[in-house]
Write a structure and sequence with these properties.
single chain; mainly alpha; 4-stranded mixed sheet; 22 helices
């Protein structure tokens, strides 16, 4: 019996401090996101509702090719680039409600955060430094996380980058499975083009590195050189990966879709997540720290950075500085370069990665006890935050729940003007009875409709003109909106009011 106890105790020795820290890192990411947030800082994104509504619509009618949810953009071409993600989200909602969506979304981000850690370790960092930098990159990207299809890009970018680095180390491994990844990715989100771009960058970088090393007739110790057939295989994968966008309901339009979004000055100027990171916030300041590590490490490094790391990092950082929405891409694609830079800084300080040692039985037992306590605390935290009342409290604080119920019960005139952030909820709860004026799908409406909305919302000259031109008879706006000051004096009657929304009708 005593021998058996000692064997079980010895089996715990794998749980050293390094593994414990890694588990804590992934656990903190998961538990921190497995909640709805609070009314002041919700993690539930307002576009979630139209994604759910669209999944419901697709299962009933098929993937739409033209706008169906609004009266202002009816008939406009709509590239439903997230159709498969919308369907999956709706099915998950039907299976377990918002609670399941929140938990699984948190799990996706946690797995992606682990992949970032693996990329940092791939650059030569030790476990503890990898965990610390992984946490920094996570905080920098945190504003983009929550139950939304966009998190799929974070996960699949990590899968792609790790797969390519492993292919470089072992070219005999299969790589064609990445084509299936691209096909699935293209149907889940148009962000698959980021993956194709990173694959193209990898291919070019590896070609240049292979050529330079052969010309020098030298093979760098510990660095693999891809042979010409391996590079040709990657080149073919770039082309086929790009064409995988054609294997979607949108066909060629999916490839062109990002051009319309990126070229819209309205989207870039008025949608917060498309703006550059705000360096006055904690996520922005964390990103700044990562950039400083990057610059300092490259200056301190005694050896040039791997060209693939350098180009991936440059591409990711360019995207991140252009838009907060793209910081997660930098967190993944830039991780190897950040890891290289951090390693160079530590080496300049005379600090190197320590070889992990098996924990003693006593230390392992202590680590197991700490882990058990943390698991219990995390479970208790999730239990409290994922109750139905907790989730409903957040939803009711940010969405016009009661105002929409009043709308459907009293049926005022159908032509609606709505606050931008309310559009997704109205599509989810009031479609088809009340087509919306606008919602988060700004690319569907185009600059003309968006300008009409801004003209009224921002009370510019002749702000009533869009209301008359679109024959608006009912207005649902935020209770704190400036329009509430003028509508009663311009022929609009307050029909419903609560702390979130107000409804006005003509006359």
């Amino acid at each position: 019996m005593a021998v058996g106890v000692r064997e079980r105790a010895g089996g715990l020795r794998w749980l050293d401090v390094q593994r414990l820290l890694l588990m804590v890192f992934v656990g903190v990411v998961f538990v921190g996101l497995a909640r709805p947030g609070d009314p002041a800082h919700p993690l539930l994104e307002t576009d979630l509702w139209w994604h759910l509504a669209n999944g419901r619509y697709i299962l009933a009618h098929g993937v739409p090719s033209h706008e169906v949810y609004s009266h202002t953009a009816a008939g406009h071409v709509w590239v439903v680039h997230e159709w498969l993600a919308d369907v999956l989200f709706y099915l998950l909602y039907q299976l377990g409600g918002l609670r399941l969506l929140i938990v699984l979304s948190a799990a996706v981000v946690a797995v992606a955060a682990y992949l970032v850690y693996r990329l940092l370790r791939h650059a030569g960092l030790g476990n503890n430094t990898g965990v610390l930098l992984g946490m920094l990159l996570f905080f920098a990207a945190a504003p983009s996380f929550g139950p939304r299809p966009q998190i799929i890009n974070f996960l699949l970018t990590g899968v792609l980058c790790l797969a390519l680095l492993r292919y470089r180390e072992h070219p005999t491994t299969r790589v064609w499975w990445l084509l299936a990844l691209f096909v699935a990715w293209a149907n889940l989100h148009s962000g698959y083009l980021v993956g194709v771009g990173l694959l193209a960058v990898f291919t070019v970088a590896e070609y240049l590195q292979s050529a330079s090393r052969r010309l020098a007739s030298a093979r760098q110790e510990g660095v693999s050189i891809l042979a010409k057939p391996d590079l040709r295989r990657l080149g073919a994968l770039v082309v086929l990966g790009f064409l995988s966008g054609l294997l979607t309901p949108a066909t060629y339009r999916l490839v062109l879709f990002p051009l319309g979004t990126l070229s819209s000055s309205r989207i870039q100027s008025f949608i917060i997540e498309w703006a550059s990171p705000d360096f006055h916030t904690i996520p922005g300041q964390t990103l700044m720290v990562c950039v400083l590590i990057l610059v300092g490490g490259l200056l301190a490094s005694r050896r040039p950075a791997d060209l693939t790391y350098l180009l991936w990092g440059a591409a990711g950082l360019t995207l991140a500085l252009t838009s907060q929405r793209h910081v997660p891409i930098f967190a993944v694609a830039g991780a190897p370069l950040v890891g290289h830079a951090a390693g160079a800084l530590l080496a300049a300080l005379g600090v190197g990665p320590r070889r992990p040692r098996a924990a003693s039985v006593a230390a392992a037992r202590l680590n197991a006890g700490i882990l058990a306590v943390l698991v219990l605390l995390g479970g208790a935290f999730m239990t409290v935050n994922l109750t139905t009342p907790s989730i409903d409290r957040v939803v009711q604080a940010i969405e016009p729940v009661q105002a929409t119920e009043w709308l459907l019960a009293n049926r005022p005139a159908r032509q609606l003007f709505n606050f931008y952030s309310f559009g997704g909820w109205l599509i989810w709860k009031a479609y088809p009875e009340y087509p919306v004026f606008i919602d988060g799908r700004t690319e569907v409406y185009g600059d003309a409709v968006f300008d009409d909305y801004l003209k009224t919302e921002f009370l510019t000259d002749n702000w009533q003109e869009p209301l008359d031109r679109y024959h608006v008879n009912t207005i649902m706006i935020s209770s704190g909106d400036r329009l509430t000051l003028l509508l009663p004096t311009h022929g609009w009657r307050l029909a419903y009011s609560d702390s979130v929304a107000r409804v006005y009708v003509r006359g």
